[in-house]
């Protein structure tokens, strides 16, 4: 949603709001004309996720137009799909599939112990959008971990996809008259949580 404040002085009969993909072109992606001077917001739908847009707000006074107030806004990058994690001892392999649509340049992965963000491991930055896997090492047995996956469009982060899993130790001991045997079973439980939807552009100008 784009919103603004009415000019304090002058005759205002409405507003024109333009949405462009390139500041150096006159090509308009979306256009809204508001004939009510008290309507101070509008929404552009069906924009490309992960895209930077230029929004121009123009005050109308009859047939006259003011100079445009220009804003640079961005939509959130799309989210990955079918994300999974496969723990193996002190490592965890994370994999995912590409978003169905939208603009993005890579991925960001973070991992920390649940309820302890300070335990965050070093982030994995995947700069190739065709690379669909990342590996975390140095995990501690018996802990619940949270992995966050964001798509990237330059430095813009998309909505997060969250994976939660545990590396729990279950010890089993079996003795026999001739030999003692010891087994350690690592039980790993994976839950996938999708948080939120990529939002529409939202900004404000005064």
Protein architecture, described:
The structure is a single chain. This protein is mainly beta. The radius of gyration is 25 Å and the shape is elongated. Strands 10, 11, 13, 14, 15, 16 and 17 form a seven-stranded antiparallel sheet that branches. The protein has strands spanning 2-4, 14-20, 30-34, 41-42, 52-61, 64-65, 69-74, 81-88, 91-97, 106-113, 124-126, 133-136, 143-153, 156-157, 161-175, 180-187, 190-194, 203-205. It has two domains: 2-75, Immunoglobulin-like (Sandwich), CATH 2.60.40; 81-194, Immunoglobulins (Immunoglobulin-like, Sandwich). It has no helices and 18 strands. Mean pLDDT is 81; it is low at 170-206. Strand 13 (143-153) and strand 14 (156-157) form a beta hairpin. The two termini are 14 Å apart.
The ordered string of helix (H) and strand (E) elements is EEEEEEEEEEEEEEEEEE
> What's the end-to-end separation, in Å?
14 Å
- The overall pLDDT, averaged over residues, is 81
The CATH topology of the largest domain turns out to be Immunoglobulin-like
Helix content: under 10%
Please tell me the total number of domains.
2
Secondary-structure class: mainly beta
The stretches of 5 or more residues where confidence is low (pLDDT under 50) are: 170-206
β-strand amount:
over 45%
Strands, count: 18
Q: What is the name of the CATH superfamily of the largest domain?
A: Immunoglobulins
Instruction: Tell me, briefly, the overall form.
Output: elongated
Q: What gyration radius follows from the Cα positions, in whole Å?
A: 25 Å
CATH architecture of the largest domain: Sandwich
For the sheet with most strands, the description reads: 7 strands, antiparallel
Using the coordinates above, name the CATH class of the largest domain: Mainly Beta
In DSSP terms, counting alpha (H) and pi (I) runs of 4 or more, how many helices?
0
């Amino acid at each position: 949603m784009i919103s603004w404040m009415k000019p304090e002085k002058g005759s205002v009969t409405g507003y024109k709001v333009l949405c462009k993909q390139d500041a150096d072109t006159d090509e308009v992606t979306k256009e809204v004309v508001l004939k009510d001077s008290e309507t101070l917001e509008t929404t552009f739908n069906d924009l490309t996720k992960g895209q930077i847009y230029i929004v121009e707000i123009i005050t109308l006074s009859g047939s006259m137009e003011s100079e445009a107030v220009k804003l640079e806004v961005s939509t959130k990058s799309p989210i990955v799909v079918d994300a999974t994690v496969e723990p193996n001892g002190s490592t965890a392999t994370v994999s995912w599939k590409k978003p169905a649509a939208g603009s993005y340049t890579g991925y960001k992965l973070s991992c920390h112990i649940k309820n302890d963000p300070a335990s965050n491991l070093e982030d994995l930055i995947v700069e190739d959008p065709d690379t669909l896997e990342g590996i975390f090492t140095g995990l501690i047995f018996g802990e619940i971990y949270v992995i966050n996956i964001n798509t990237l469009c330059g430095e813009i982060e998309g909505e997060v996809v969250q994976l939660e899993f545990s590396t729990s130790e279950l010890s089993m001991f079996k003795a026999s008259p001739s030999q003692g045997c010891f087994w350690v079973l690592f039980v790993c439980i994976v839950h996938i949580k999708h948080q939120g939807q990529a939002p529409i552009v939202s900004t404000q100008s005064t």
